[in-house]
Write a structure and sequence with these properties.
By secondary structure, the chain is mostly helical. The protein contains six helices and two strands; from the N terminus they run ααααααββ. Helix 3 runs antiparallel to helix 6 and helix 5 packs antiparallel against helix 6. It is flat, with a radius of gyration of 51 Å.
């Protein structure tokens, strides 16, 4: 573009047609240069965009702070609800894993006792019904007899009482096992809540109970020999 005035100045002596041809050639040359510069600029821009798309700038992720379990304290309300919904869930939330065998052992023992007593109750109940109907074809009570023993008219009344008492006994034990199961569940809930409440209780060495002898004054006594007395002083530091 800077050489354009010089070319125009040198073309003045030429004819009009020659000047037009030369001018068209110069314009075409300038357009070609401009187009080349534009193409190069677009190519450079595309190259920069490709580089940006390839190069991924990774920012370092913020490291998650680890929880300090030594200073963590459980929430009593959350421990209560977890213990109510999931048996043993409160102990897991309080991180008292050593209590889980006690809790689940109590549940398993109560369920086993309830199933066993229920089975024995139904067996003795059927035996009692069989011995009371006077039907010789129904004799399920024979499996409860000792080896060589038989039920006759002489001992039939006694066996009726035995079967009735055992039927009632196993039914009572079955019901008791069910209430024990509820008791174990209630104790696990109470333990989870109380344990969470006491997690923030101060049990440091500053808590102490000191017991020491002391001399106490007795102003009510008129005798100077009995004006003082020995005693024990208990003091609690917290």
């Amino acid at each position: 573009m800077a050489f354009l005035p010089f070319y125009l100045f040198t073309l003045l002596p030429l004819s009009a047609s020659a000047q037009n041809e030369v001018s068209d050639s110069i314009v075409q040359a300038i357009d070609s240069m401009y187009n080349a510069m534009t193409v190069d600029t677009v190519a450079i821009s595309d190259s920069i965009e490709n580089i940006k798309s390839v190069v991924v700038v990774e920012t370092p992720k913020a490291l998650k702070a680890e929880r300090d379990w030594s200073t963590w304290r459980p929430n009593p309300q959350r421990a209560l609800w977890l213990a109510l919904v999931i048996p043993g869930g409160g102990q897991i939330y309080n991180r008292k894993y050593w209590k889980l065998p006690i809790v689940y052992g109590g549940f398993v023992g109560c369920v086993y006792a309830m199933m066993w007593n229920n089975m024995m109750y139904h067996d003795y109940s059927q035996a009692y019904l069989d011995i009371m109907d006077n039907d010789p074809t129904t004799a399920s009570y024979n499996k409860f007899l000792h080896l060589g023993k038989q039920i006759t008219d002489d001992n039939k009344d006694r066996y009726k009482q035995v079967f009735k008492s055992r039927k009632d006994k196993y039914r009572r034990w079955r019901d008791l096992s069910f209430f024990c199961l509820i008791g174990v569940y209630a104790v696990s809930v109470i333990d989870a809540y109380v344990d969470a409440e006491l997690s923030a209780f101060d049990i440091s060495k500053d808590l102490s109970l000191k017991v020491r002898p002391t001399v106490m004054g007795n102003n009510s006594s008129m005798n100077p020999l009995y004006a003082t007395s020995l005693g024990v002083n208990c003091s609690i530091n917290f």
